[in-house]
Amino acid sequence: xxxxxxxxxxxFAPHLLSVLRIVAAGSFFTHGTMKLFGWPAPFEYxxxxxxxxxxxxxxxxxxxxxVGLFARPIAFLLSGxxxxxxxxxxxxxxFFPVLNHGEAAMLYCFLFLYIxxxxxxxxxxxxxxxxxxxxxxxx
Length: 139
What we know:
- The chain is an all-alpha fold.
- It has one domain (9-40, 52-129).
- Helix content is 64%, strand content 0%.
- It is built from six helices and no strands.
- α1 (13-37) packs across α5 (103-118) and α3 packs antiparallel against α5.
């Protein structure tokens, strides 16, 4: 073990994966509630079919990810949604996410892709029900 590593931190990896999923999904959920319900603030653009569909996926998918139910397929679906959102809404405004305001979409895309591969962690309904391998085991 390298001197800079915190001893036993690997033991918390499955729990921290759950915390990451819960916090990210909770934040993602509010993007949908803004679109559909104007909460916690009104959405600044008029809704069209694509935005309305995205709002539904953000609310439903965000809730499912918060509780960790069907986490892998939901995370994969939401990863695709965010890739689509990045290229449709941000990618045409330039290459760099910091300049085209696409950082959130890009980060959500890869975060959800990671969750779809790693699983939801130990604090999830999937892990509780024994569906898949909800917990990533420390190495």
